Amino acid sequence: MDLAALQELLDNSAFAVLFAAMGLYWISAAFPRIPALQELGTAAMAIGNLSIASLLIARWIDAGYFPLSNLYESLFFLAWGVTTMHLVAEWMGRNRLVGVFTAPLAMGIVAFAAFSLPVEMQSSSPLVPALQSNWLMMHVSVMMFSYATLMVGSVLSIAFLVVTRGRVVELKGNSFGIGNTRSGRGEGASERAEGESEDSAAIGAATTNAGVAVLERSQTAVASALTPQKLSLAEVLDNLSYRLIGLGFPLLTIGIIAGGVWANEAWGTYWSWDPKETWALITWLVFAAYLHTRITKGWQGRRPAILASAGLVVVWVCYLGVNLLGIGLHSYGWFL
């Protein structure tokens, strides 16, 4: 089998596996008493990740350069980043339900690249002079991985908004989501509030009677109750979204700086207000505002989730919208 046929097999296989993963995660959400479905979904995402990585390696060998020169290759690299960050999110959150929201994203990207792009865009072609640089691997790969990380974080914020829709949710704890979730409507919320007041009074009485030793045991019990495995789904989503965006933002910053250095070498200027550069700056500002509200303002829950959800739209405009318009210095992958 030649490399071209292998690549076609791998991209079709990646789509099929990711589609199966999406189905498994959705069925597992509907039937949570069948844990094997979630495990199969995780295995399918891992296989999809390996299929995409194999495809990129095959194209690298075939073309002789790092496979990030056109829209087809960058979409598959983006899908590889999304599946990678999905596996990281599952590992951090100890909750496989995140796949209900991330698997459709990865599957949709692969489907668009494999079935929507014209054949001529899917084939390798010689690099344009501006791309014949070692900065191709450094700048573009970091930018694409930052996009993938920010997308997964933003999708989990959207998932948080969906899960908590119509409910008053108050997350208690630090910026990493360690704390209690209180939610409810009407009388249910009042009953929980009364119960919490009674619990607080009981804890206070126990502390007064038993002294410091009892207080230490109480603190240990609280810490044990707030392990990631026992956090509510809303807390897990809020926590993971914050952590992933916190990882993607510095990657985006490094990618923009590397792009400026490369632009100076290729075009003689660090910043030219090219549409891609402008939208990269807008993306940076949106997620900088998100982290600012989380870190300095102490926001948690719905308000930062809404900001992160808007960030998903901005990332897509920055990555794909500019390419679709076919304008500017970065429009190597446009097809209109």
**Largest beta sheet, briefly?**
2 strands, antiparallel
**Share of β-strand residues:** under 5%
In total, the number of strands is 2
Helix content: over 70%
Alpha plus pi helix count: 11
Mean pLDDT: 78
Low-confidence segments, ≥5 residues, pLDDT <50?
A: 173-197, 199-230
Distance between the termini: 33 Å
The whole-angstrom Rg is 23 Å
- Shape type: flat
Instruction: Identify the strand order in the major beta sheet.
Output: 1-2
Q: Structural class, please?
A: mainly alpha
Order of helices and strands: HHHHHHEEHHHHH
Overall structural domain count: 2
Topology:
Elements: H1 3-30, H2 35-63, H3 71-93, H4 99-116, H5 119-122, H6 135-163, E1 168-171, E2 181-184, H7 186-210, H8 212-225, H9 233-267, H10 275-295, H11 302-325
Antiparallel strand pairs: 1-2
Provide an overview of this structure.
It is a single chain. Strands 1-2 form a two-stranded antiparallel ribbon. It folds into two domains: 3-171 and 232-325, no CATH class; 184-225. Helix 6 runs antiparallel to helix 9 (233-267). It is 74% helix and 2% strand. With 336 residues, it is mainly α. The protein contains eleven helices and two strands, in the order ααααααββααααα.
Brief rundown of the structure:
With 336 residues, this protein is mainly alpha-helical.
Structural descriptors:
336 residues, mainly alpha, 2 domains, two-stranded antiparallel sheet, 11 helices, 2% strand
